Amino acid sequence: MWWPGGISLRRRAPGWLVPLVVGVLLAQMAVAMVTAAVQQTPTIDEPVYVGAAADYLHGYGLRHNPEHPPLGKLIVAAGVAFSGARVDGADFAGGQGAWGRRVLYGSGNDAGQVLLAARLPVIVLTLLFGLVVFAFARELAGVWGGLAALALYAFSPDVIAHGSLATLDVPVAGFLLTSVWLLWRARTRPRWCLPLAGVALGAAVATKMSALAAVPVLLGLAVLSVGPRRWRRAVLGAAVVAVAAIAVVWAAYLLADPRLGWEPRQRVPVVAGRRGLLVALLPFPEAYRDGMRVQFALENHPWQGFLFGRVYDGSRWYYLPAALLVKTPLGLLALGAAGAVAVLAVRRLRPVAPYLLLPAAVLLAAAMAGARDFGTRYAVFLPVFAAVAAGCVLAVRWRWAPLAVGALVVWVAVSSLRTYPYYLPYANEAFGGPAATRRHLHDSNVDWGQDLGRLADRLRARYPGERVWLVYKGSGVPSYYGIDARDPRGVPVAAVRGLLVVSDSAAAKARGRLAELLAGSREVDRVGHSITLYRR
């Protein structure tokens, strides 16, 4: 590409340069994710997934966590198996959270070692999805577009944060992008790409049920890829994708429990009406359908949210767009929006518009309609798709496009590096950076229980021997890390003296006794941008 008076992108890069840049970008992402994985203690959801992974490994079947299909937890199980974790729970009768904590803390295991091992497969998968981002964008906008897209992906704080955890959000986003890319390639290579797209789609659906919202869209894209004028072949192509996806879901359940011996340990709600009919029609194992019923019940729960300093009941349709404005680097916001315009405005890019824009839009709409305003992790697919779209800006015939894209990519990189290694509470510069995230958002946006180990180190280093009162929001066990603390909410306010340590999510929604305690306290220290220490 050549812009008069601008920069030529037609010059062929040396054969060694592109692999080197790809390697460097993925290496820095790997360092960021491994560092976060080593330093962070369990987030709220991770013990549940580690416990379910242990169930699969030791033949306990599908007894826990039916609300999420097993594939993501099977990926986690690969790491748990490598750790050699000891598990004894054939007669365990507690809930999934208690079981996960028993695996990590109550079975004689090194909790940090088991957790790191569980996180490593997700880290590897996140890096592989980076190659998909690069390949997709390179097909659309050339090598430089691919490198720009990969850089935006590799420096995305949300992708790094959740790609370093033993959770399901980045895997489902990556599988969906892979399926979309393969459907795009099926326009010229349908024989191989359609079945593989179905496998990737099935992997997404077998990882998290929120991927179901994308199924009709991707089946429509399969028809589009074959060509709607050849309607018989198009319908057959969509059928191939659907059958492959269904097969992957069944295979995941059979790997988790070859007997499919589904015996739920929790009450499965009855779902009637259109939702009940939808669940009954799903061509999946009964455990999957019961998981859908549990998800619908969770959607009916009266959750609380927090946005820009305000606590509210229920959900707000604008929560996710607002949270994404806070949590997405400004350079990625600008380039993602410009890329969306580019794929609509540039003639040769218009065919890819439904592939890039429609799945992301439908998934975002479905997430916005949900009842749980808990974080941008529910929309972590957006920076993934936005990175590919952003690379398309380099296909625009504007002489300053390379300089503008390069400058914005560097801005994203600097913003990401400045937050290292605290990626989970990241906020962009317009909202004050990670130190200010707690004023705007809560839960997995800032404080998901990840800094309990850092808190223990801080207390030993700066406050040895002091009386500690702790209000911790998370799944970790404070005593395991050497924290000797009491909950201040069960004693008179006047008795709470010394250090009051409060997770920022708990402080954001403080009411009653906790609000009274905070009002009479003085902030003295902070840990990881997610836990605040007060003096009373």
Verbal overview:
- The protein has 536 residues and is mainly alpha-helical.
- It is built from 21 helices and six strands.
- The strands form two sheets. It has a four-stranded mixed sheet with strand order 3-4-6-5. It has a two-stranded antiparallel sheet with strand order 1-2.
- Helix 1 packs antiparallel against helix 5.
- The longest helix is centred in the first third of the chain and has 44 residues, at 111-154.
- The chain is globular.
- Mean pLDDT is 94; it is low at 1-8.
List keywords for this structure.
disordered N terminus, four-stranded mixed beta sheet, single chain
Concise synopsis of the structure shown:
The chain is mainly alpha-helical and 536 residues long. The protein has helices spanning 17-39, 46-57, 71-83, 96-105, 111-154, 157-163, 169-185, 190-205, 215-226, 231-256, 273-281, 286-299, 319-327, 330-345, 353-368, 381-391, 401-419, 437-440, 452-462, 504-508, 512-519, and strands at 304-307, 310-313, 468-471, 499-503, 522-527, 531-535. The relative contact order is 0.12.
